[in-house]
Write a structure and sequence with these properties.
Order of helices and strands: EEHHEHHHHHHHEHHEHHEEEEEHHHHHHH
Strand content: 5-15%
Low-confidence stretches: 3-34
Distance between the termini: 44 Å
CATH architecture of the largest domain: Alpha Horseshoe
Length: 514
């Protein structure tokens, strides 16, 4: 069984996921009286158990929905028509789609687990005097919970806009109205600032735990998305102890064997083990939903294939493409000597190679133990380039971009070669175009593209045409129009079961267009 530091992914700590905030009748609600805080938090092991439960809902989220939803609404994938992908790929969204409700529920269950830790700070501080843990242990526990709560709310605000803001135990199970997106972002910034102060730096805590560097990286990302560029620069300046992997190890960023490397900043852990079918698909947080289906969805079944648009974005000599995407006769496997597809029953190319079992195995199965990379140092470098551009420091922005280019062994921006390829960087607009290009190819298939396009106000331009055949045809009549409306589809609908059950949210609170 794969371990993360001193705790198992499959653990009895799952029973501490007490706070099921959605009233979906299909989701069992735990008895919140089963654990009495007055007789809990009395030992270090109990504190660790409560903190571990705060991580658990990300395993539920990224079992499928956490990667399906943001990737399918981007222009990086085309859907096979599978029901998990097609409505999002076509923007045929409605409030009753089960995946949307599951996404909402998992995030709010995670918020509740974080609040269980945060809301018991005083009890932990009191018990630290006579127990086997110290105030420093309490600080670290709180720092992890603040980070995770901020990350859960990051997912919620990006997919839904304003949502109920629940930050204390007293209102945890009360019906709560939608807060504004600004209020959610304000709380996230406050949480991540606290996390950066309380968590331990990389190398001082168990592998897989939230670190100080991860807290600063996510804080900088939030600042960037709020156009608070000076604050973002300051936050990113505190990200240390991480490096880009050399090109020969680049695929370690996406494989099971390369987990927790020096480029990885925060991962969601999976071990590939499953229980019964009922346990595995229960989505309650107390079963064995500790496998991610991305490898099977993307590479095995081909439910979400790389679009022609993302394939065309790679320069012909870019080695990152062969690590990201498998074409007919592409080499894969532990020794990189097998020709795709190489196995009977395989879907045809192209398919995603990223986060595939095929880095380490010769076949793909549903029971993948590949961790989901949430924060990668390459993303931080590219965000730093964007920050510098917005602060008027074009030269510094290009320097950051060239760190990514140098790792890939590609020509640098600012050279005659890149000028000839259509990527000069003599003006701010040209530097911006280089950033857009570099983020597209470096971070493809990593749930970044849609939010990037929205942040840049390029979503209407880039998402209004299907990114497959004829997406760049000079004859507009040959392009297939996509059902994208930026006034509607920048967010998803609030789940109908939340509107039906939450007395503080009514039909008039639904996102426009749904």
């Amino acid at each position: 069984m794969k371990r993360i530091g001193n705790y198992y992914i499959k653990s009895t700590v799952l029973l501490f996921t007490l706070f099921f905030l959605s009233c979906d009748d299909n989701v069992p609600v735990e008895n919140t009286n089963a654990l009495n805080p007055e007789i809990f938090f009395e030992s270090l092991s109990q504190i660790e158990a409560a903190v571990n439960s705060s991580y658990n809902q990300f395993q539920i989220l990224y079992q499928r929905d956490g990667y399906v939803l943001p990737d399918a609404i981007s222009d990086e994938v085309v859907s096979s028509g599978d029901a998990n992908f097609a409505p999002f790929n076509r923007f045929e969204l409605n409030p009753t789609i089960p995946n949307i409700a599951l996404f909402w529920t998992a995030c709010f269950n995670g918020v509740g687990a974080c609040n269980f830790v945060i809301g018991n700070e005083e009890r932990m501080r009191t018990n630290a005097v006579t127990s086997d843990f110290t105030d420093a242990d309490v600080d670290n526990a709180l720092g992890q919970a603040y980070f995770l709560r901020g990350l859960y709310y990051y997912h919620l605000v990006k997919r839904f806009g304003g949502v109920p803001l629940k930050i204390d135990l007293e209102t945890q199970l009360e019906d709560t109205p939608r807060a504004t997106a600004d209020e959610i972002y304000g709380q996230m910034i406050a949480d991540l600032k606290l996390s950066a102060q309380l968590t331990l730096p990389k190398g001082s805590t168990e592998v897989g735990r939230v670190t100080r560097e991860a807290a600063y990286a996510l804080l900088g990302k939030v600042y960037l998305h709020r156009e608070m560029f000076s604050e973002a620069k300051e936050a990113f300046s505190n990200v240390a102890n991480h490096t880009l992997l050399p090109l020969e190890d680049y695929r370690d960023n996406f494989s099971e064997s390369g987990e927790h490397n020096d480029e990885s900043m925060f991962e969601i852990g999976y071990n590939g083990e499953v229980g019964t079918e009922q346990e595995r698909w229960a989505q309650t947080g107390i079963g064995t939903s500790e496998v991610t289906f991305r490898s099977q969805d993307y590479t095995g079944w081909g439910n979400a294939r790389p679009s022609e648009k993302v394939i065309a974005e790679f320069e012909e000599d870019d080695p990152r493409q062969s690590v990201a995407i498998l074409f007919t006769d592409s080499l894969y496997g532990p020794a990189n000597n097998l020709a795709f597809p190489g196995q009977s029953g395989s879907v045809g190319a192209p398919v995603w190679y990223k986060f595939s079992q095929l880095y380490d195995e010769v076949a793909v199965s549903e029971n993948s133990g590949i961790n989901v990379r949430i924060l990668r140092y390459a993303d931080v470098i590219l965000m730093q380039a964007e920050v510098e551009l917005n602060l008027g420091n074009n030269e510094a922005a290009v320097d950051f971009l060239n760190q990514i280019r140098n790792r890939a062994g590609m020509p640098e921006y600012g050279t005659a070669v890149m000028d000839a390829r259509g990527f000069p960087v003599n003006t701010s607009e040209q530097v911006f175009n280089a950033i857009v290009h570099e983020r597209f190819v470096e971070l493809c298939g990593e749930q970044q593209r849609f939010d990037d396009l929205v942040r840049w106000n390029l979503d209407d331009q880039e998402l209004s045409i299907f990114p497959d055949a004829n997406f760049n045809n000079p004859d507009p009549s040959l392009r297939v129009v996509r059902n994208y409306d930026p006034n509607v589809h920048r967010v998803m609908p609030i789940p109908q079961n939340e509107i039906d059950s939450n007395t503080a949210i009514g039909p008039g609170d639904q996102n426009p267009g749904y």
